[in-house]
Every structure is written in structure tokens, then in C-alpha cells.
Amino acid sequence: MTENGDKTPLVVLDDVNKHFGSLHVLRDINLTISRGEVLVVIGPSGGGKSTLCRTINRLETIDQGTITFDGQPLAVEGKTLAKLRSEVGMVFQSFNLFAHKTILENVTLGPIKVRGIAKAEAEKRGMELLERVGIGAQASKYPAQLSGGQQQRVAIARALAMDPKMILFDEPTSALDPEMVQEVLDVMIGLAQEGMTMMVVTHEMGFARRAANRVVFMAEGQIVEENTPEEFFTNAQTDRAKDFLSKILTH
Amino acid sequence: MDELIKYAPDLLRGFLHNVQLSVVCAILSLVLGTVLVSMRVSPTPVLRAAGTTYINVVRNTPLTLVLAFSALGLSDTLGLTFSQEPSSNAFWLVSLGLSVYTASFVCEALRSGINTVSLGQAEAARAIGLTFFQSLRMIILPQAFRVVVAPLGSVMIAMIKNTTVAMAGGYLAESAFVMKDTFDTTGASIPIFLGIVVAFMVVTLPIGFFTSWLANRLAVVR
């Protein structure tokens, strides 16, 4: 992937620390995500990747440090926090589509209730987004009637419907059957090429190589290494990263 | 059998009061129960504590005492009056007491339903920018209600039968009171007794069947 965006920072994490009880899940995290950047976070399980991702829209609170989004410190609660979240899309490992709503309703709920867009307009835009991720024909079905790959594409459309400034992907393909991974990755690669700012926690090295501007390697709650995908995969600097790569790239 | 036929109009009139109480209390207790469960799961500690205290106090107080309190405490001592007409005043006091009592059970049934809705649903709702109460109203409660339709039916059936305790709150019109009154003049009568049982079953059995059917129909496939 070539250089994306205008390089002004969208998200800045400054000395962020977080504990789950006695477990120190995020240790002195300093990280800047630029507009238009596609950042891939990889690393062993329990290394704090998902937690890091979830702190950015404050689904997880932090104990110390600061996070600024678009120049503003993260809101703590209430309407300002809801507004922040409406500007940061999120795609979950387990899709989390609203089970009692149709596919189209899943996509239009946010625009109608949060943005106050008229229903007809939201539905028109929702259908466009569903067509774009290849689910247009399923708009009136319920989430449980769709395959995992389809559900995850709907989840991406739901995030896009809010016109977010960035999208967080928390292991978007980890719960999918292998044959459905690519259809989701294809949608994500398309977004990356259009310049969407993305933070992607994933184990998909192919995606990282094709779409990422930068790879961050996390282990034991720390950012151990960050580099371009090419450099990272071919010439990792730290033993911890080399060890991790040797385990996942050999098979 | 003769006494049942003779007193049937009185008993039926009494039973209509049970039905009236039931309809009013069903509406009030469902609304109040929903408000209570919103408090119990809210992120605000004060609301949570208030909800929990309400449940622990009201749910563990015998209904007869709740009704006696609405009549003697709220009305006689504190002067809460709904109507100048004593019978109508008693009706609303009993409705209030029974609704307040039933709401605690509605709340707990709903709360068990909320616990079956996965955390991811709430996270996804918050992630698109819905506030806590929006996500509760649009995402969590609709799914929770579907899960607890059958238990809520049981709560409603219990409430309908509880209307026969209304005399504890000074409301002397419903069928159990009429029955007692009739027995005072005629002596105990098994046909009258059974007649009232049948009248209740005519109302409560369909509610049981309907809510079971509805529970299956509404089940959210996950």
C-alpha cells in the first residue's frame, strides 16, 4: 500500500496504562494514528491488542494517560461520549448485529436515531452500503439467517452508515469459517484503498501485507515493535516478534 | 347449586371488579417494572441503589401489608386521596398497592431477561453512538421482553389472583369479598366457591396459553 492520507494525527495515545485487577494489560502505550492510515495490530493472545482497540472508543476505560481523538480528549460519559462513538466505527469479532432487527434496520438504526436522518434517506443510503458489501439481496432478513461472513460484512456496512472518521476492527475474521475470511478481507481492503482510517487487530498477515501502512506488534501489554509491513515480516528487529512470526508463518 | 344461581349476578359483578383491577394493575406494573429494571441496570450508582432497595423492600413485604399500608398509611395518615367517592378511592389505592407490589416481580423477570442478552449487543449499540437509555430501549429491552414473555405471564396470573386480597386495602367489591359476604348469610357453599375458581380460570388459563404461544413466536434466533 502506498502512502495514504495527509498525515495529520487523528488519534493520539499518550502514556496509556490499564489494569484488569492485578493484570497490567496496557503498559505505557504511545501511539499515533494518522488520517487515512491503515494500522494493523498483531501479537500473541492476551497481549492487549483488543483492549487497546477498545480504549479508542472508550468501550474500555483507561487508568492513566490520555487519548485524544480528532484533537479532543476522549469524552468521559454522556452525550459527548455517544457523539465520539458515533464518529468511530467498530467491527467486532462476534459481529454483534442486533438480533431482533433486520439487516437493513441494523444499518439504518444509527443514522436515524443518532444522526436524525430521515428514514427514507437512511434506507436509501443503507441499501447502497449493503449493495457495496454484497448483501443487498438479504436486506429484509434477520442476522441469524446469514452466514458469518455475510453478517460481518453487514457489520462493516453498519459502521460505514455513520460516516465515521475511522473504523476499529477487533479481530474481524477470527470467528469466521475459513472460506468466509476472504470476502470480509476484500471489503476491508476496498475501504483501505479508499482512504478510510482503520485500526485492525488481526492475525491475517496477508491483509497486513496488502493493505496496512504500518504494523504494530504488541505483547504483554506493550508495543514491542512497529514498522512497515514489509520490514516487519521480513526483518523483525526484536526476538519477541521473530519468535511470534516464526510460529505463525511456518504453517 | 341453587345458591350459585341465586347469587351469580352479585358474584359476577364482583368478578368484574377483579377484572378491572387486573387490567389497571397489569398496565401500571408493567410500566413501573420497566422503569425499575432500567434503574437497576443503569450506570448511575444512585439509581441502581434506589432500584435495588425498592425491590428488596417491596418484594419481601406481604401483599396484605402493602395494601393495608396504602389504605391506612397513604390514605388515612398521609392523606393521599384519589377520589371523594370512598369505593373509587379504595379502588385506586388498591391498584396502586398491587401495582407497586407486582412491579417488583415484573422488574426481576425483566432483569433475568436482560441477563440473557449478550454484552456484545449493548457494546454494538454504544459503538454506533446510542446513549445508555437509547440502547436499553431499542436494543436490550426488546430482546429481553421476548425472552421473558412466559415468566411475565406467570407474574400477571399471580397478580390477577392477588386481586382477591383487595379487601385488605379496604376495597369491598370484588368477588372474594362478595363470596365471603354471601357465606355470612348462606353458610359456606361449595358451588359458589367452585364458580369463582372457574371464573378465574376462564381468565388466567388463556393468559398462560397465550404467553407460551407468544414466547415461541417471538423467540429471537441467535
Automatic annotation (TrEMBL), chain A:
<keyword id="KW-0547">Nucleotide-binding</keyword>
<dbReference type="InterPro" id="IPR003593">
    <property type="entry name" value="AAA+_ATPase"/>
</dbReference>
<dbReference type="InterPro" id="IPR030679">
    <property type="entry name" value="ABC_ATPase_HisP-typ"/>
</dbReference>
<keyword id="KW-1003">Cell membrane</keyword>
<dbReference type="InterPro" id="IPR050086">
    <property type="entry name" value="MetN_ABC_transporter-like"/>
</dbReference>
<dbReference type="GO" id="GO:0015426">
    <property type="term" value="F:ATPase-coupled polar amino acid-transporter activity"/>
</dbReference>
<dbReference type="Pfam" id="PF00005">
    <property type="entry name" value="ABC_tran"/>
</dbReference>
<keyword id="KW-0067">ATP-binding</keyword>
<dbReference type="GO" id="GO:0005886">
    <property type="term" value="C:plasma membrane"/>
</dbReference>
<dbReference type="InterPro" id="IPR017871">
    <property type="entry name" value="ABC_transporter-like_CS"/>
</dbReference>
<dbReference type="GO" id="GO:0005524">
    <property type="term" value="F:ATP binding"/>
</dbReference>
<keyword id="KW-0472">Membrane</keyword>
<feature type="domain" description="ABC transporter">
    <location>
        <begin position="11"/>
        <end position="245"/>
    </location>
</feature>
<dbReference type="InterPro" id="IPR027417">
    <property type="entry name" value="P-loop_NTPase"/>
</dbReference>
<dbReference type="InterPro" id="IPR003439">
    <property type="entry name" value="ABC_transporter-like_ATP-bd"/>
</dbReference>
<keyword id="KW-0029">Amino-acid transport</keyword>
<dbReference type="GO" id="GO:0016887">
    <property type="term" value="F:ATP hydrolysis activity"/>
</dbReference>
<keyword id="KW-0813">Transport</keyword>
<comment type="similarity">
    <text>Belongs to the ABC transporter superfamily.</text>
</comment>
<protein>
    <recommendedName>
        <fullName>ABC-type polar-amino-acid transporter</fullName>
        <ecNumber>7.4.2.1</ecNumber>
    </recommendedName>
</protein>
TrEMBL record, chain B:
<keyword id="KW-0813">Transport</keyword>
<dbReference type="Pfam" id="PF00528">
    <property type="entry name" value="BPD_transp_1"/>
</dbReference>
<dbReference type="GO" id="GO:0022857">
    <property type="term" value="F:transmembrane transporter activity"/>
</dbReference>
<keyword id="KW-1133">Transmembrane helix</keyword>
<dbReference type="GO" id="GO:0043190">
    <property type="term" value="C:ATP-binding cassette (ABC) transporter complex"/>
</dbReference>
<dbReference type="InterPro" id="IPR043429">
    <property type="entry name" value="ArtM/GltK/GlnP/TcyL/YhdX-like"/>
</dbReference>
<protein>
    <submittedName>
        <fullName>Glutamate transport system permease protein</fullName>
    </submittedName>
</protein>
<keyword id="KW-0812">Transmembrane</keyword>
<comment type="similarity">
    <text>Belongs to the binding-protein-dependent transport system permease family. HisMQ subfamily.</text>
</comment>
<dbReference type="InterPro" id="IPR035906">
    <property type="entry name" value="MetI-like_sf"/>
</dbReference>
<feature type="transmembrane region" description="Helical">
    <location>
        <begin position="20"/>
        <end position="42"/>
    </location>
</feature>
<dbReference type="InterPro" id="IPR010065">
    <property type="entry name" value="AA_ABC_transptr_permease_3TM"/>
</dbReference>
<dbReference type="InterPro" id="IPR000515">
    <property type="entry name" value="MetI-like"/>
</dbReference>
<feature type="transmembrane region" description="Helical">
    <location>
        <begin position="90"/>
        <end position="110"/>
    </location>
</feature>
<feature type="domain" description="ABC transmembrane type-1">
    <location>
        <begin position="15"/>
        <end position="211"/>
    </location>
</feature>
<keyword id="KW-0472">Membrane</keyword>
<keyword id="KW-1003">Cell membrane</keyword>
<feature type="transmembrane region" description="Helical">
    <location>
        <begin position="147"/>
        <end position="172"/>
    </location>
</feature>
<feature type="transmembrane region" description="Helical">
    <location>
        <begin position="63"/>
        <end position="84"/>
    </location>
</feature>
<feature type="transmembrane region" description="Helical">
    <location>
        <begin position="192"/>
        <end position="215"/>
    </location>
</feature>
<dbReference type="GO" id="GO:0006865">
    <property type="term" value="P:amino acid transport"/>
</dbReference>
<keyword id="KW-0029">Amino-acid transport</keyword>
